[in-house]
C-alpha cells in the first residue's frame, strides 16, 4: 500500500504546483505519480495471480 500512498502524495504535489503556476514541476510530479500507479497495479495483479494458486489454510 506504500506505492498507492506515494501516488496520492505526488498527485497532491502536482495539483499544488499547478495551482501555484509551476507547470514544469507539476508535470514531473504527475509523471512520477503515473509511473508509481502503474507499478502498483502491475504488482497487485501479479500478487493476485500467485495468491490464487496457493491452497487456503
Description:
This is UPF0391 membrane protein E3D00_04755. It is found in: Cell membrane. There is one protein chain. This protein has one domain (3-50). With 57 residues, it is mainly alpha-helical. α1 (2-20) runs antiparallel to α2 (23-52). The protein contains two helices and no strands. It has helices at residues 2-20, 23-52. The radius of gyration is 16 Å and the shape is rod-shaped.
Q: Based on DSSP secondary structure assignment, what is the total number of beta strands?
A: 0
Tell me the major beta sheet: none
Structural class: mainly alpha
Low-confidence stretches: none
Order of helix and strand elements from N to C terminus: HH
Q: Beta-strand level of the residues, as a percent range?
A: under 5%
Helical segment count:
2
Distance linking N and C termini? 24 Å
Percent of residues in helices: over 70%
Tally of individual domains: 1
- Estimate the global geometry from the Cα principal axes: rod-shaped
- Overall mean pLDDT stands at 87
- Using only CA atoms, what is the Rg? 16 Å
Amino acid at each position: 500500500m506504500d506505492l498507492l500512498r506515494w501516488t496520492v502524495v505526488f498527485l497532491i504535489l502536482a495539483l499544488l504546483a499547478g495551482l501555484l503556476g509551476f507547470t514544469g514541476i507539476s508535470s514531473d510530479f504527475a509523471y512520477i505519480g503515473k509511473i508509481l500507479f502503474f507499478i502498483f497495479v502491475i504488482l497487485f495483479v501479479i500478487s493476485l495471480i500467485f495468491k490464487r494458486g496457493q491452497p487456503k489454510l
